[in-house]
UniProtKB/TrEMBL annotation:
This is Nucleoside diphosphate kinase. Independently of its kinase activity, facilitates mitochondrial tethering prior to membrane fusion through its direct membrane-binding and hexamerization. Implicated in repair of both single- and double-stranded breaks in DNA through its association with the ribonucleotide reductase complex (RNR complex) via its interaction with the histone acetyltransferase KAT5, this interaction enables recruitment of NME3 at DNA damage sites where it plays a role in the repair of DNA, independently of its kinase activity. Catalyzes the phosphorylation of ribonucleosides and deoxyribonucleoside diphosphates, other than ATP, into the corresponding triphosphates with ATP as the major phosphate donor. The ATP gamma phosphate is transferred to the nucleoside diphosphate beta phosphate via a ping-pong mechanism, using a phosphorylated active-site intermediate. Through the catalyzed exchange of gamma-phosphate between di- and triphosphonucleosides participates in regulation of intracellular nucleotide homeostasis. Inhibits granulocyte differentiation. May be required for ciliary function during renal development. Its EC number is 2.7.4.6. Belongs to the NDK family. It is an enzyme of class 2 (transferase). Keywords: ATP-binding, Kinase, Nucleotide-binding, Transferase. ATP binds at K23, F71, R99, T105, R116, N126. One of its GO terms (biological process) is GTP biosynthetic process. HAMAP family: NDP_kinase. InterPro entries: NDK-like_dom (IPR034907), NDK-like_dom_sf (IPR036850), Nucleoside_diP_kinase (IPR001564), Nucleoside_diP_kinase_AS (IPR023005). NCBIfam families: PRK00668.1.
Amino acid sequence: MLTVLAHHFPAAGEQERTFLAVKPDGVQWRLVGEIMRRFERKGFKLVALKLVQASDELLREHYARLRERPFYGRLVDYMHSGPMVAMVWQGLDVVRAARALIGATDRADAAPGTIRGDFCVEVGKNVIHGSDSVESARREIALWFHSDELLCWEDSA
């Protein structure tokens, strides 16, 4: 049975949550299933998922800490250029593990076997976004999902 959680984030030491978004290039290249498969194989639990065309307002808030960077405008425009798949994954140390699965931001630094190492074409189109800390994950999850969209379910495996 699925239970909807209101404003629930696991406490420290418990299973944490992270925000991931397959960027427009990843959606266009039909990589959503492959990316999800990698997280499922690691044993993480999907607790929220949606296909979205993000608004400029949402993207500007999401990338607010990069506002002063020279690529900020291009980044927001690119992220608004097509649909994205927003997800929340849960598991033990999921933020750090997700960053390892994703790989370095720059494709030249992304190891083979990582998502970016296997699929990234250029640094500006690097397939996937992942929260870089537990605090960022909390902020990003709250930006992209309402509390009633986060589901808690029992794993029967």
